[in-house]
Amino acid sequence: MDKQQITVTSPLLPPLEEFVPYLQEIWDSKWITNNGSFHKRLEQALSEYLGVPYISLFTNGTLPLITALQALRVTGEVITTPYSFVATTHAIWWNGLTPVFVDVDPQTGNIDPDKIEAAITPRTTAIMPVHVYGNPCDTARIQALADKYGLKVIYDAAHAFGVTVNGKSILNEGDMSTLSFHATKTYTTIEGGALVCHSAEMKQKIDQLKNFGFAGETTVVAPGINSKMDEVRAAFGLLNLKHVDEAIAARRRVAEKYRAALKDVPGIRCMEDIANVKHNYSYFPIFVNAEQYGMTRDELYFKLKEQGILGRRYFYPLISSFSPYRSYESADPLRLPVANRLADTVICLPMHHGLRELEIERVLEMIVGED
Ligand SMILES: *Cc1c(COP(=O)(O)O)cnc(C)c1O
User: Fold this and answer.
1) Is residue 120 in a domain?
2) Is residue 10 part of a domain?
3) Which residues are within 8 A (CB) of 236 and not within 5 positions of it... i.e. 6 or more apart?
4) Which domain holds residue 200?
5) How do residues 127-171 score in pLDDT, each as one tens digit?
């Protein structure tokens, strides 16, 4: 008997009847893209919701990474983490730069600030860390290193929508932060993303870069890209913003149930909430210690899969293991022992706002075992 599948994620969809009037407004206006009314309203609404003065919408979460490096005129080498989605390193490559991988911290999965300094060379001009699973990086330590060596810092905050530390948005750290609003993320515009910066001048530059470099009707000031968000997705995002708090609260309840049930299972480690951090529960990774648990990560992963429970091995393989990058000196697994261990032991359990009690129980039963 095929049981119903439990997917790792499920998109946050606003109620259709609430969306219809938004669509009607777009149809009436006949303005469907290029900095329309919903685009402006969504930028304003996100600026307020996230507590960031300067935010530019993008058509996905990869192009703001690429554009940030371009806007900051980053050259040479960029220090980054192998424990992320592959887009982080791709963005470095697309700027003709060399990624330099640094190992991560086992508790958070984020780049290990203790190991950054040794990777800095005369060619290093920037650091691109990721707030993995929404866990805030050690931004103070990273900024201190950046200040000491004159480096730019661009945070890939694709997982960190709404995350705050001591009540302040994590997105105000570094020189810039990027967001992804892809369908799999906590907050979505279907496809979409954003770039957060810290001045009106920089926002203007970014807005030019995402619109082919146009600075006016007849002036092009840079080889920009096309990364404009259209009105339909901006409207979808504006409406979803009304529902995202509820979705995060639902995710939090899922996380609490998982944690409570898994805390005494030998060989299963969960990530804990960090004091003074408002988490968004974007993922629920567990790490399997095969010796203690009696089953390897892959054995558990496939056992879950057979039962229709579709976890994901985020982030396996490491970015540094993919063929475009594995020949880099810094990609050597011996230099990245922690990242390799996490990648070899992680499973992200189903985590979304719509998970039902029975589904959570089914997932837990498979991991805890019957007694
Ligand atoms: C999702 C994601 C991206 C890319 O975002 P897209 O919107 O899919 O282009 C970049 N970095 C990380 C860490 C992500 O998880």
Assistant:
1) yes
2) no
3) 14, 19, 22, 189, 190
4) 16-103+110-239
5) 999 999 999 999 999 999 999 999 999 999 999 999 999 999 999
pTM of the entire predicted model: 0.97
Q: 137 near 80, Cβ under 8 Å?
A: no
Half-sphere exposure of 170 (CA within 13 A, CB side): 29
Taking the C-alpha atoms of residue 88 and residue 93, their distance in angstroms, rounded to an integer, is: 9
Query: What's the rounded Cα separation, in Å, for the pair 213 and 282?
Result: 34
Q: Which atom of ligand 1 is nearest to the CA of 184?
A: 1
Q: How far apart are CA 244 and CA 369, in angstroms?
A: 33
Tell me if 343 sits within 8 A of 317, measured CB to CB. yes
Q: Structurally, how many domains does the chain consist of? A: 2
CA-to-CA dists, residue 204 to 136, 172, 198, angstroms? 28, 17, 11
Report how far residue 220's alpha carbon sits from residue 135's, in angstroms, rounded to the nearest whole number.
39
User: Quick one: average pLDDT of 18-31?
Assistant: 98
| Phi, psi of 23, rounded to the nearest 5 degrees | -65, -40
CA nearest ligand 1 atom 7, residue: 61
Last residue of some domain: 217, 239, 261? 239
Question: How far apart (Å, rounded) are the C-alpha atoms in residues 10 and 7?
Answer: 7
**Interval 31-41 mean pLDDT:** 97
Distance in Å, CA 59 to ligand 1 centroid: 12
H-assigned helices in the chain: 16-29, 37-50, 63-71, 87-94, 139-149, 200-209, 231-240, 244-262, 290-293, 297-306, 337-345, 357-368
Site to probe by mutation for ligand 1, drawn from 62, 83, 90, 110 as the one with most ligand atoms within 8 Å of Cβ, is: 62
CATH of residue 72:
3.40.640.10
Tokens of 262: 């898994």
Cβ < 6 Å from ligand 1: which residues?
60-62, 84-85, 87-88, 130, 156, 158-159, 180, 182, 193
CA distance 138 to 115: 12
- Residue 23 is classified by DSSP as H
Distance between CA atoms of residues 182 and 185, nearest Å: 5
d(CA 39, CA 248): 24
